[in-house]
Structures are given as structure tokens and as C-alpha cells.
Amino acid sequence: MTTPLVALSIAGTDSGGAAGLAADLATFAALGAHGACAVTAVTAQDTTGVGRIVPLAAADVQAQVDAVLGDLPVGVVKTGMLGSDEVAAVVAGISGIPVVVDPVLTATSGAQLGSDEVVAAYREVVLPGATVITPNRDEAVRLTGLDPRTPALELAAALHELGPAVVLTGGDPRAATCGDTVMEGSGAVTVLEHDTIRTCNDHGTGCTFSAALAVHLGNGTDLLTAVHRAQAFVSAALTTSSTWELGRGRGPVAHIFVPTTQEN
Ligand SMILES: Nc1ncnc2c1ncn2[C@@H]1O[C@H](COP(=O)(O)OP(=O)(O)O)[C@@H](O)[C@H]1O
Ligand SMILES: Cc1ncc(COP(=O)(O)OP(=O)(O)O)c(N)n1
């Protein structure tokens, strides 16, 4: 008998199947983890944008989290769109398990997925108990309140002061390379750069990266190696989706490919 790593995603749904819970569960499965989930919000979303957003009450999210934690040996928690400060408090109540926080605030289409109250809750209650946070530049600017031109290192340091290790992601489809700035718990900084995959089928990239990172951390991998492997997973996923013709907007990042040893 074996027990797989159990990864719990606390996130919103994306009806288009690219981002949010769909991306998290598909990534967990691709990397050999059993995925459990607590839905925070339902979105009517496709490759062109986000339509309706229906947040769930915190009590409903708490009930899902309690059901999972009461039964399964969860080895890592990964959060995405939280939807309200009350749901942020549910996340803050989880202890004794590594928590990877992807602070989803805005979709690529520009849709707001996190209010100012949610931003305040990240700063005040979620980040002090988190293991690692994986914001993109826009999310880091919003969470810190710093000038949008602030260098990556300063943004990472400002988030690190709130508690967690930081992986400030630098995905840019127009640049030759993407650079992710990693600030470990100790404060050590490393910039991990890799080639950009040219594709407009990249919807869900951030969720996929954080979910892959969560699996590797849940398996006990050190942060730098885990980031390196999560980058490799995302690059392989984007390479697959780059050949797709799917949807009228930014198509989904692929989750249907077999990871090689490097991405695993
Ligand atoms: N076109 C790309 N090619 C290769 N890696 C990418 C590409 N876009 C993003 N990434 C990587 O995916 C991860 C998530 O990055 P990012 O796009 O910044 O997140 P988000 O979707 O939240 O904005 C990072 O490791 C980043 O380097
Ligand atoms: C329900 C939901 N959660 C998260 C996101 C944002 O996903 P992300 O991986 O950052 O991808 P992009 O939307 O930036 O491509 C979402 N859109 N919906």
C-alpha cells in the first residue's frame, strides 16, 4: 500500500478549464499528487475574459477545508483566488502544513479577482502564516503598495518582511527570457532565468506554476530546486499549448502532456 502526496487547492473555478481549480488539480495529477479542493468562488470565464463571479460564503469554504483536513493526510496547501477577506481568514486558520499562496488579484484580461479588503487580509492574516508567496509583478505592486517601477528585489523584500519566502514571477511573452526572483526564508536571493516559450495560449500559467511548486515543496524538495522544476513543468506545458488552436482569446496552457523526469 502507498499513500500519495495529498495537495489541497483552495481556489476559484474557471469554466474555461484553464486557470484556478482546473489548473491546480490537473497539475497535481500530472505530478503524481492526489488533489483535494475547496471552492472559493465560481467564475463564468473563457479565453477572452471573466464574466460573472459568484463568491462562496466563508462558512461553505470552511466546511470544505474541514472535510478534507479531517480525513486526508494533506501534505501541502495551495491557494488561488480567495474572493473575500472572510475566506482569507479561513486560510489563515490552517496551521502545521506548508501553504503556497498564489495571490490571485487580477486576471490577464484585466478582471478584478481580489478587492482592497482581500489585499489587506493577505497582508495582515494570510502572509504571516504562509510558507511561500508567488505573485507576478502586478500582484506584488498591489500587495506592497509600492511604485509600479520598483525593482523586483525591493518588491520581494517588502513581501518577505510580512513572513513568507517569495517567488516573484516574471513571465513576459514579449521578452526573450522570463526571470523569477526567489527570496528564500533566510533572505538569500536568486534570479532563475529561462527561455520564453512563444505562445498566446498561456491562460492559467500562474496557477499552474504555483501548483507545481506546491507539489515539489510538499514532497520535501528545497525551494530553489522546486522553482526550477515548476518552471520546467510550465515550459513543457506552454510548448504543448503553443501548437493549439483553442478559443477566441488567450488559450489555455496545456495540462495534457506527460512530464519527463526533468519536469517531474
Ligand atoms: N511564455 C512563457 N514561457 C516560459 N515560461 C513562462 C512564460 N510565461 C510565464 N512563464 C513562467 O510561468 C511562471 C508564472 O509566471 P507569470 O506569467 O508571471 O504568472 P501569472 O500568470 O500569474 O502572471 C513563471 O515561472 C514564469 O517564468
Ligand atoms: C478562478 C481563477 N483563478 C485564477 C485566475 C488567474 O489565473 P493565472 O494563472 O494567473 O492566469 P492568467 O489568468 O493570468 O492567465 C483566473 N483567471 N481565474
From TrEMBL:
Keyword Isomerase found: no
Ranges for the Pyridoxamine kinase/Phosphomethylpyrimidine kinase domain?
A: 14-253
Q: Name one Pfam family in it.
A: Phos_pyr_kin
Q: Which UniProt keywords apply?
A: Kinase, Thiamine biosynthesis, Transferase
Molecular function (GO) terms listed? hydroxymethylpyrimidine kinase activity
The record's listing under SUPFAM superfamilies reads: Ribokinase-like
The EC number of this protein is: 2.7.1.49
Xref: InterPro entries: HMP/HMP-P_kinase_dom, PM/HMP-P_kinase-1, Ribokinase-like
User: Which reaction is the catalytic activity of this chain?
Assistant: 4-amino-2-methyl-5-(phosphooxymethyl)pyrimidine + ATP = 4-amino-2-methyl-5-(diphosphooxymethyl)pyrimidine + ADP; 4-amino-5-hydroxymethyl-2-methylpyrimidine + ATP = 4-amino-2-methyl-5-(phosphooxymethyl)pyrimidine + ADP + H(+)
Q: In which pathway does it act?
A: Cofactor biosynthesis; thiamine diphosphate biosynthesis; 4-amino-2-methyl-5-diphosphomethylpyrimidine from 5-amino-1-(5-phospho-D-ribosyl)imidazole: step 3/3
- What biological function has been recorded for the protein in this entry? Catalyzes the phosphorylation of hydroxymethylpyrimidine phosphate (HMP-P) to HMP-PP, and of HMP to HMP-P.
What is the name of the protein in this document?
Hydroxymethylpyrimidine/phosphomethylpyrimidine kinase
Where does this protein come from, organism-wise? Nocardioides aquaticus
